[in-house]
């Protein structure tokens, strides 16, 4: 009897809540080390690109984080000159 009531209560709560649509996933934040490994560059290169405004970043306290979607967007807009 108790389990039946509990199951009914859970089902009723799930119908009444806004859990029909799951919340969007949080943006994936990369650390400097993860982004350096992904781009295969040194931490110094990443710092220079960040200071030049080439790569968007977020400061959380003293920590620097990068949104993967923002970095992919920037990388897709870059043109590479291969004539040299």
Walkthrough of the structure:
This protein is mainly alpha-helical and 84 residues long. The protein has a domain at 26-78: Arc Repressor Mutant, subunit A. The chain has four helices and three strands, in the order H-E-H-H-E-E-H. The chain has a three-stranded antiparallel β-sheet. A hairpin with a 2-residue loop joins strand 2 and strand 3. The longest helix has 15 residues, at 2-16. The chain starts with a helix and ends in a 7-residue tail after the last helix.
Give the helix/strand layout.
Blueprint: H1 2-16, E1 29-30, H2 32-39, H3 43-51, E2 58-60, E3 63-67, H4 68-77
Antiparallel strand pairs: 1-3, 2-3
Strand content: 5-15%
The strands making up the biggest β-sheet line up spatially as 1-3-2
Oligomer: single chain
Alpha carbon gyration radius = 22 Å
In CATH terms, what is the architecture of the domain at 26-78?
A: Orthogonal Bundle
Number of strands: 3
Predict the CATH topology of the domain at 26-78: Arc Repressor Mutant, subunit A
Outline: elongated
Per DSSP, the total helix count is 4
Order of helices and strands: HEHHEEH
Distance between the termini: 78 Å
């Amino acid at each position: 009897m108790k389990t039946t009531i509990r199951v009914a209560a859970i089902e009723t709560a799930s119908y009444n809540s806004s859990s029909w649509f799951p919340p969007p996933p949080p943006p994936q934040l990369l650390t400097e080390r993860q982004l350096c490994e992904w781009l295969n560059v040194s931490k110094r290169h990443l710092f220079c690109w960040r200071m030049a405004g080439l790569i968007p970043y977020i400061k959380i306290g003293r920590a620097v984080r990068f949104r993967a979607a923002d970095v992919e967007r920037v990388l897709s807009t870059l043109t590479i000159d291969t004539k040299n």
